[in-house]
Design a protein that fits this description.
About 25% of the residues lie in helices and about 50% in strands. With about 120 residues, it is an alpha+beta fold. The protein has a single domain (about 25-120), classed as Lipocalin, CATH 2.40.128. An eight-stranded antiparallel barrel has the order 2-3-4-5-6-7-8-9. A hairpin with a 2-residue loop joins strand 5 and strand 6. The radius of gyration is 20 Å and the shape is globular. The relative contact order is 0.16.
């Protein structure tokens, strides 16, 4: 009787467990300006209705929450440091990771809010 109830659970675990790593997203941290420019710059990034294009020349622009924004950026100490210049000024250095056609950024030098964008 116990076998009858445990078998479906054991079977599901044996079949589904190997698939779990395949479902998890794998990201690799970008640590240099050259790698960032090669893998991210001059490509459009999408997050729902939000967009951003980060250019190799140190500028970026996009739309977030229906509001246009723009700014400048530089690579500093292993982080992508951007300064919004419009609609308001704001600076933040962010940890950047890429993988599976996506870019994950973590604000406040890897300690803040996480956002994931898809490459167009």
């Amino acid at each position: 009787m116990i076998f009858k109830h445990l078998f479906p659970l054991a079977f599901a675990t044996a079949v589904l467990a190997p698939a779990a790593p395949a479902l998890a997203e794998s990201f690799t941290r970008i640590e240099t300006d050259a790698a960032f420019k090669k893998q991210v710059a001059n490509r459009q990034l999408l997050q729902g209705e939000n967009t951003v294009t980060i250019r190799k020349n140190g500028k970026f622009s996009g739309v977030f929450g229906g509001t246009k924004y723009k700014g400048v950026w530089q690579w500093r100490d292993g982080y992508w440091c951007r300064t919004l210049t419009a609609p308001q000024e704001n600076t933040d250095c962010q940890m950047i990771e890429v993988g599976g056609g996506k870019m994950r950024l973590t604000r406040q030098r890897g300690k803040g809010k996480v956002q994931i964008y898809s490459f167009k």
